[in-house]
Q: What sequence folds into this?
């Protein structure tokens, strides 16, 4: 160890999976000194997670990288439940819209995790500020006490072994062959055992000192074990299979998400994917022991699927990946230590894949802590905001585990049904207490499952109540819903959310109401001085000012607003035409013209909204309440000296 | 010449501007042996054309390359007319929607021609089948008589000089500086004079033999002159200025397209562009002579603009490009010679830039001849289809010249107006015979200007009348209007047009009507055998079969259609789920569910539609009329031997 190379970084991210890459995306935006290390020698290429919920897609869009997954992924819009028909077959009993209309501009998609990891690798690489360092095996973690405000302290030390050889830590995933050696058993994976394989070479040791550590190192988190945190929760003993195939089938709903429950053969969750692939989660009805595991392979899994789906046939010639898993719901007692070490994703919560939530909640963990670390490390925000990570995200994980328990119970029930009726085939069958009611489960959970319903509790970052009587549907603590508005200068329709890219800025949205009313115009005029002095308390680019008025677009021009609202005049580039917007109808876009109404904002009176860098609403107040706004911002922002 | 390298190619394209690159895109799709040569050493980087009409955007989408121009370009949705207010100023008199609602999924955009050329260079380079050869100066053209059906004949010979040095043929465009040497006078450009500069080096000569030649070599077309074709038409003597600047202004409509007519200082056409740039076409009121030209520069142009726009101010610090032009409308008497040499774009029609049509009509010329050359050279279609190029496209050019004359007259009028009224400011002013009525001009021309109204006359490729009484709004000869439908298997909403990519295939669209009706189901069943034998007369991939039914989506599955309609079953990939679609509503997409109605198709009875590779409707008939369909296809397709 005496010869170890010693280095320093502001932020160390362990793990370059979806969570780690999401945090890396933020670190790129903030341009903070960052290292991202991963023990594996390459990103995954097949299998693993595949569901992206709408909030995750919104986040992707906020980084400008949603297009590929949105265009290429399979878009889930509805889900069918199939039940036993009381004889030897199954019938469609329900057709459920997976998402309420209007909650997002996206619907959820299913796509290979590899595409998602590559998307973020490309984003970070394009920024060119750091790159992912692979074959880096952490071996020792120490954390010393430090004052939260000490900016020059590196309280974290990690010893890392640079592996010379491509890491065999993870067995390659199954790739179209059924050979037994390719199976990947998540529960058996153990990096300690694998680590021993690496000792043959003389490998470099590095001692990395970091101000902050973010552990995104998965369900078997090395960091979590170093910290002595023990996962709490339950685990069943039954093993499920998961397989990605191109199905050869006459099942009519194969390209629709389906929950299929046979009378005695078990259940399947069918998820269509990109490029004609389907993912099947198959209840194998077997206890998890080595004898059973030895007998499970893609062929036996499809045999089980065939029994569940009878009389429909299913087979495959191409298998992309397969794995086995046990169902459990477990959570770490802590998500952070000393506000210096943070854990995200599978490292702190594990559950079944049934709700397609894992990758989403994990990436959203990292999205939450990522901007906070960026804001603290760049000196924009006070370190005390870091404690909101655990209060905001552990609650989400607990909700997820509850939802997962409920759905797991649903899949575990095998229900005998009366024969199919024409009404049933159309999904219009009335529900009875004996029917597994997937529709009801989805409806109860829909906002949570979409990710848009997640509402953070009051904290230093989120006010507990609005000071405006004119903003009824702007949800404090939740992400600001996006509706289509128009650019005042060009009449181009845009989604409100596209004004809130993940670029580190806080935003003050001035819903100015009807500025053709003299009283409102004078209110706006009087806002200039206090708003200007509020903004100037903080460094440039800390806060954006965006105005959305509700007067008819053609009756107003940007020159009807005080210069402050048009942004600074640049002597070469002139006025910024992307500061003033209008909630009005548009000839070519029927979605425009209802933003005020949908947000519950009074079209005459307007309001002020304070938005965090993660698009969550932190403050809502009356149009004149710059003082309240200033108090909110002053609670966590660091003023210029 | 004895030492000249001799080579052979199927298709030679001269000119790698927008038209040449559009033809190159087709050549890449058909994978025909192609050379693209250009005398310039690099693509343009600034200036030139910038308007893309909606049909052009649809064509870009058909090659999968619309995203960048659509997202980055400035979207024109409306245009304002400003007139003299009768005193010393101007006022807004009209606000015109540039495009009727519902005619396309796009609105027109304005973006630098360089972006467009690069988009197609990237497309061709991605295909990797050939590349653009630059610094290639054609010197001699000969064309011998040949039989149209002789596939092995190379009747065209072109001698080309490979220039060693970067070609100075075109003066570089103005780039932010006002230096006199940067001005580019289109009318003065003369490649013969420039050619002499190239004689100092010993440069290789190549003798290229080609089966077909497509000349996209611009307004001073070398090819056209070699063929002895003389442009016909008129030309004014007045010079206009065009300038791309980032304006510093208080003009309220600067980010809206505007026609501005002062009382005595002249007119301006203002076109907002990407990245805060504006293009201004400025009537300079000067005759075209060397003295006047010597006195024109960006500063004098902006001085004129300032007078026209008074009392508003306008200035700039950044000028991207500028040029001068004279207005005229000229057309070549022929667009092709011996069905072996074809001319497209500016080589055969020139006019003013006022309607933003030039690049569009030019690229659409190449889009028209491109697929025909591809189909003939691959042996799919008979050479006789080539004569439809001139009959289809010369008519379009004549219409364009007429429209340009009308708009030129409009801009030439300087009209004195009574003072502004509040109604006028909102664009609701009643029109009088003394007012230049831009609204009326646009409305008369709107379908033509959008490009979607272009209807090709009856020919070997286009039937003269439909045989179905159940398809009222499917326009024979025009491009098939696109409406949103749903994939039957996945419920994903898609635009009908995305089923018709520019990949060389002809399409038979089976609007099957309501297949829940027993008579309709039996009609569909009975279509299988005749359709199958029709398709099998031609090589694979010549014709796609796509079905769009009108029964409720949830009452039907793809297995309710005969296997033929589902496409061939692949033993690894299974069924193709992208063959059967439905016209039904969708929860998350309010645009779905009206395709039959908008196309005027009877929802019970349906119809058959034959679509050419360029998305133009060639044939419409009753659902059972496979014989009529076969006759149409047999008229131009080459059957298997």
A:
């Amino acid at each position: 160890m005496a010869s170890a190379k010693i280095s320093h970084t502001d932020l160390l991210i362990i793990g370059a999976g979806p969570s780690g890459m999401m945090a890396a995306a933020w670190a790129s935006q903030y341009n903070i000194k960052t290292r991202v290390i991963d023990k594996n020698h390459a990103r995954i290429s097949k299998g693993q997670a595949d569901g992206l919920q709408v909030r995750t897609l919104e986040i992707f869009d906020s980084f400008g990288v949603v297009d590929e997954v949105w265009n290429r992924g399979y878009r889930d819009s509805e889900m069918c439940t199939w039940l036993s028909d009381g004889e030897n077959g199954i019938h469609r009993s329900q057709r459920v819209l997976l998402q309420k209309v209007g909650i997002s501009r996206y619907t959820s998609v299913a796509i290979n995790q590899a595409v998602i990891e590559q998307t973020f690798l490309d984003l970070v690489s394009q920024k060119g500020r750091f790159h992912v360092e692979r074959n880096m095996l952490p071996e020792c973690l120490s954390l010393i006490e430090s004052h939260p405000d000490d900016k020059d302290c590196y309280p974290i030390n990690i010893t890392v072994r640079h592996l010379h050889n491509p890491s065999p830590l993870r067995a390659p995933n199954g790739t179209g062959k059924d050979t037994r050696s390719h199976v990947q058993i998540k529960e058996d994976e153990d990096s300690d055992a694998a680590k021993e394989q690496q000792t043959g070479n003389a490998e470099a040791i590095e001692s990395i000192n970091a101000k902050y550590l973010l552990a995104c190192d998965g369900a078997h988190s090395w960091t979590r074990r170093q910290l002595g945190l023990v996962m709490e929760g339950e685990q069943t003993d039954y093993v499920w299979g998961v397989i990605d195939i191109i199905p050869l089938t006459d099942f009519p709903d194969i390209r629709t998400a389906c929950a299929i429950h046979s009378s005695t053969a078990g259940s399947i969750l069918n998820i269509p994917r990109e490029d004609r692939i389907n993912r099947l989660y198959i209840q194998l009805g077997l206890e998890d022991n080595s004898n059973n595991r030895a007998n499970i392979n893609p062929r036996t899994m499809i045999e089980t699927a065939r029994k569940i789906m009878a009389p429909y046939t299913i087979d495959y010639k191409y298998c992309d990946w397969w794995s086995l898993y046990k169902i459990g719901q477990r959570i770490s007692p802590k998500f952070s230590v000393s506000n210096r070490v943070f854990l995200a994703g599978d490292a702190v919560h594990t559950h079944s894949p049934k709700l397609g939530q894992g990758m989403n909640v994990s990436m959203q963990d990292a999205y939450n802590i990522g901007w906070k670390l960026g804001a603290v490390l760049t000196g924009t925000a006070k370190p005390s905001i870091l404690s909101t990570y655990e209060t905001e995200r552990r609650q989400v994980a607990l909700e997820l585990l509850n939802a997962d328990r409920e759905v797991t119970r649903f899949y575990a029930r095998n229900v005998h049904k009366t024969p199919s009726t024409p009404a049933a085939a159309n999904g219009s069958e009335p529900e009875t207490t004996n029917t597994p009611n997937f529709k009801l489960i989805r409806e109860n959970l829909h906002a949570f499952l979409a990710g848009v319903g997640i509402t953070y509790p009051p904290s230093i970052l989120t006010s507990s109540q609005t000071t405006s009587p004119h903003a009824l549907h702007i949800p404090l603590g939740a992400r600001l819903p996006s509706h289509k508005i128009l650019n005042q200068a060009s009449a181009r329709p845009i989604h409100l959310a596209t004004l809130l890219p993940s670029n580190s800025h806080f935003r003050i949205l001035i819903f100015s109401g009807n500025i053709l009313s003299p009283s409102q115009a004078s209110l706006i005029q009087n806002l200039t001085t206090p708003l200007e002095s509020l903004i100037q308390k903080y460094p440039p680019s800390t806060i954006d000012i965006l105005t959305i008025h509700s007067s008819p677009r053609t009756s107003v021009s940007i020159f009807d607003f005080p210069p402050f609202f048009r942004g600074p005049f640049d002597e070469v580039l002139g006025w910024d035409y992307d500061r003033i917007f209008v909630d009005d109808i548009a000839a070519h876009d029927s979605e425009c013209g209802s933003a005020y109404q949908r947000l519950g904002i009074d079209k005459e009176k307007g309001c002020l909204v304070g938005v965090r860098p993660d698009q969550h609403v932190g403050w809502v107040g009356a149009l004149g309440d710059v003082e309240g706004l200033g108090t909110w911002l002053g609670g966590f922002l660091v003023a210029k000296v």
In short: Chain A touches chain B through 45 residues (CB under 8 Å). Chain A has 15 helices and 27 strands.
